[in-house]
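Exam review. A common question shows you a sequence with its structure tokens and asks you to describe the fold in words. Practice with the pair below. Do the first one on your own.
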Amino acid sequence: MKSLTPWRWNPVRGEYEQGARPALQGTGEISAIRAFSNCTMLLLGGTGFVGKVFLAMILDRFPELRHLVVQVRPRKNVSGEQRFYSDILTSPPVRTTVERLGGADAVRQKVTVLEGDLDEPLCGFSAESLDQLKGKIDVVVNLAGVVDFDPPVNESFETNVYGTQHLIELVQLLGAKLVHVSTCYVAGKRDGRASSDA
């Protein structure tokens, strides 16, 4: 049935637009391998459970990825890099992939670890790190966030709201694309399956 109005909904921009719908181009296929081929990715939240699984998959299934930069928050008396190589790469979701690739030394050739914190402006990257990243990052993947279902409100806002604002500022500064993954609070008060078009 032909629409009687010249207006149509653009789901990407989230608004109505006037005029005819543009002709479709391309095959309609989406290929992550092609999208990440020869690109440099910045990963935030790679130390959490979902992040470790994502990290293992990226290292294992995307050899075409040019380079991976992983942000790791330092802990008391442990640098981000030490934490990455001693805790993250030896964790069950990642260990098998690291062994298959040839160990931590093989990972060092593909991965750079930088310290930062989503709760700080520009995700806590130092001026030196930002200079190192500018013009080199193609896509930022964010898996960081508070995933507890009942944290104190100020704690969840600090990371999930203000942290997201810091992330957006960082992505704009870097001129990169953003993939933002939320592992919690995405369905409001609904029970059961909630599709993305609901």
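Now try the second one, then compare your answer with the model answer below.
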Amino acid sequence: MKPTEILSNEHRVIEQVLDCLEKMADRARATGRLQKAPAQQAVDFFRNFADRCHHGKEETHLFPAMEAKGFSADCGPTAVMRLEHEQGRGHVRGMAEAIEAAASGDAGALERFVRHARGYLGLLREHIQKEDHCLFTMANQALSEQDQAALLATFHRVEHEEMAAGTHERYVEIANQLADHYGVARAPAAAGAVCACGH
């Protein structure tokens, strides 16, 4: 398996939770109240699985590997991806800050949560498409088999040494709990191999 395939599989799990977030925001606006526990689970997932694990592997390992092959870190595709990651973090912070009040029925906080949720949905769905259909193709063309093997070993180390044991599996389980709660189909990758360790 190539490093980009691992990242693409992770995208399917992230999309699953994005679909849940969309239903969550629609339901909150319709009822005038946000469900606190699922909203907290979603924010936890986006912060730790989508950002710390997934975006972390890209920013710390994949993007520098591509830049070592000549991609510009200042104005190339990896620079655009980093900027979008940062924009996503802003939306996740905005959702997190609004949860408590939105769950208590505060209309302003609920509107802020929904606004950030929808901003994040649009941003990340487009971002995933860019990576799956453009960036990962560029990476596969630029990186040799040896480069890819080294990157795969690095991803494996991230999963086993830099993150607590079972972290990846726990967030896939959260993704599946949210999917079941909101009636969203589970991504095939959510039940199978989504990380470098084969879990």
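Model answer, second protein: The chain has one domain: 3-179. The radius of gyration is 17 Å. Full marks require stating both points clearly.
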